[in-house]
Amino acid sequence: MTTDSVPLLIGEQVEAYGAAVRAQTFTDAAEIMRREGLPMSAGLLEAQRDVETLDRAEAGRQPVPTPPPMVCATCETSVGWVSCPTGGWWAHGSHPADGHDAAPMPAAEVER
Predict the structure, then answer these.
(1) Do 72 and 79 contact (CB within 8 A), yes or no?
(2) Is 44 part of any domain?
(3) Mean pLDDT confidence for 52-78
(4) Measuring CA to CA, which of 20, 63, 79, 105 is 20 to 30 A from 26?
């Protein structure tokens, strides 16, 4: 094999090619696991492949703007946004004793 028969990969091309090879390796290993009678192991490999694919897709997105400081309308303690791949939710830093859910409102609106 000569260097003329292998294309030179530069920068982002290397990353994209490496990601494709890694995903295919997970798929191939999962197929081997299934043939060997290890379906749960195969499922874990496929899940890892999917998570890494999602992570790469998320890395290319613009960051979500940070919301203004918020407090709970019920107890006036600070609440924060908990982000997840399907959206997110507001939560208290420490769960209140009465068990109420966070009801966010801008901290600037709290009457002092």
Answers:
(1) yes
(2) yes
(3) 72
(4) 63
